[in-house]
Amino acid sequence: MNQKIFIKTFGCQMNEYDSNRIYDSVKKIGYEKTNNHEDANCYLINTCHIRDKAKEKVYHEVGRLKKIFRTKIKPLVIVAGCVAQAEHEEMINREPYIDLVLGPQAYHKINETILNYHIKKKKLEETEFDAISKFDYFSKIKNQTKKISSYLTIQEGCDKFCHFCVVPYTRGPEYSRPFVQVLDEAKHLIDNGSKEIILLGQNVNAYNFEGFKLSDLILELEKISGIERIRYTTSHPKDMTNDLIDVYKYSKKLMPLVHLPVQSGSDKVLELMNRKHTIKTYLEIFDKFKKINPKIKFSSDFIIAYPGETDIDFNETLKLIDNVKFINSFSFIFSPRPGTAASDLPVIDKKKTIERLELVQQKLFMNQLKINKSIENTIIDVLVENRTDDKSKLFGRSEYMTSVLFEGSDDFIGKVIKVKIQSSNQNTLFGEIIDQSNQRVA
Ligand code: SAM
Ligand code: SF4
Ligand code: F3S
Q1: CATH assignment at residue 64
Q2: Using 50, 70 and 90 to split pLDDT, how confident is the model at 125?
Q3: Could you tell me the CATH number of the domain that includes residue 402?
Q4: Is the CB of 160 under 6 A from ligand 2?
Q5: Which residue, of 80, 110, 130, is where some domain finishes?
Q6: How many domains does the chain have?
Q7: Which of 183, 177, 180 is nearest to 197 (CA)?
Q8: Rg of the Cα trace of the chain?
C-alpha cells in the first residue's frame, strides 16, 4: 500500500506529540506523511476538547473536508484526540463522512483499525483507556522526530478533577511511562539530532514510575551527552515537591522558566475550582525557586470569570500578576465543559468577562514587553532551531522560550550561541550573533 496521510492537529503539545507518533505508526502500513491535505488518502483530525465549541469545530472541519474532496476520491476520515474520547460512536452516527473514531489511549490500535477498515469497510470506535499497551507499542516503533527541540510525553491523564476541566475524562487516570522507556526515547531523539527535550504530561510533575520521580528523570537525562536543554510542562502546584525544586540547584541543562498554572489569584475561587492549592502555597513555591536562582521566572495559565468570581476575587488575580511578574502566560475565559462539575454553574455576564480578560491580558502583555525591553543591548544564549518561513533569518529560543530572530548561516542550526539583542516587541527578540570576544559574526 502506498498511501498519503495528513493530520490536522488542534490543542496542546501532547496532541502534537501524539500526531507525530501516529505518523511513525502508520508508516509501517504504507502511509507517508503529506503536507498537502488535498493529496491525502487518509485525513486524521486530532482534536482538543478543552474550551469553546470543540465538538462543533470538528463537524465544521469535516464539512470543509467534504467540500475539498467533492470532486475527488473520499479520503479515509479519522477523528482522534480528546473530542473523539468524549463523543465515542456518537460522531460516526451524526456524521457519516467520519469513518473511524480513536481516543488518545487507543492509538496503539491505529494500524490494525485502518487495515481492518480497508478489508471490511466497517466503521469503528476505539476509546478504551489503555495507556500501558499504547506506550509499550510506541516504544517499539522508534520516534522519528528530527527536530532540534522535541516533545517527549512521559505522563498522561489526571486524577485531580479540577471542576472546570475535561482532561481526567478525555485522557483517563494518571499514568507514568517506565523510566527506562523514557530514557531510551530521549537517547534516540538526541541521536536523531535533537538538542532540547521538552518532557510532557497533563501533570508532568506528578510523574512517578515505581518511585522514580521527575527529579530523578531530569538528573538522568542531564547525563546524556548531546542534550543541551531540558524543559517540562505542564506542572501542578500540588506536585511541585522539594526534590524537583532542588534539581535547579544541580542541573546545568534545566531551563530557568517554570510553567506553573495558578488559574486564579483568589483562594475562594481556587477552592471553588477544586484546585488543591492556595495562593500562600503557590507563593511559597515561587520564593523557594527565587532563593535557588533569582533568574528563574514563572509563567502561568489563568481562567477568567470562573463562576462565583467577584470583583474582589478578580482584583486578587491582578495583584498576583503584579507580584510574580509572570512571563509568557496564557489567559482564557471560563468555558463550561460538558460532564464536569462546573458545567452547569451560572456564568458571569459576558461584558464583565471580556473586561476582565482584557485587564489581565494587558498586565501580562506589559510584563512581557518590559521583560523583553530589559533584555535589549544584552547578550543571551539562544538555541537555534531553524529558519523563518521566508528563509531570511534564523529562528531560535531564549532560555525563557521567547522567540529570537537574527541573521546567520545554517551552520548555527542546532547550536547554542550568543546573540546580542538589539530590539524587541511583545513576543519576539531581534538581534545579531556575537562570538566569544563580543564581535559580530554574521
Ligand atoms: N494540568 C494543568 C494544570 O493543572 O494547570 C493544565 C492543563 S489544561 C490542558 C491547560 C489549561 O487550560 C489550564 O491550565 C486552564 O487554564 C485551561 N482550561 C482548562 N479547562 C478550561 C475551561 N473549562 N475553560 C477555560 N480554560 C480552561
Ligand atoms: Fe485539568 Fe490540570 Fe486540573 Fe488535571 S490538574 S483537572 S489537567 S487543570
Ligand atoms: Fe486539549 Fe486534550 Fe490537550 S482536551 S489541551 S488536547 S489534553
Answers
A1: 3.40.50.12160
A2: confident
A3: 2.40.50.140
A4: yes
A5: 130
A6: 2
A7: 183
A8: 23
Looking at the predicted structure, is the pLDDT value of residue 1 above 80? no
Q: Which of 110, 130, 150 is the last residue of a domain?
A: 130
Give 270 Cα–ligand 2 centroid separation in angstroms: 12
Query: Residue 441 above 80 pLDDT?
Result: no
Pocket probe for ligand 1: among 10, 18, 50, the residue whose CB has the most ligand atoms within 8 Å is 50
- Nine cell digits for residue 274: 477544586
Whether residue 96 lies inside any domain: the answer is yes
Residue 26's domain comprises: 3-130
Identify whether 389 is part of a domain. yes
Q: On the CB side of 321, how many CA atoms lie within 13 Å of its CA? A: 25
Q: Where are the alpha helices (DSSP H) in 121-250?
A: 131-140, 167-170, 179-191, 214-222, 242-250
For residue 14, the ligand closest to its alpha carbon is 3
Instruction: Count Cβ atoms within 10 A of the Cβ of residue 411 and give its class: 0-12 exposed, 13-18 middle, 19 or more buried.
Output: exposed
Residue 215 lies in a domain: no
CB 131 within 8 A of CB 159: no
Residues 6+ apart with CB under 8 A from 356: 304, 305, 309, 314
388-435 tens-digit pLDDT: 999 999 999 999 999 999 999 999 999 999 999 999 999 999 999 998
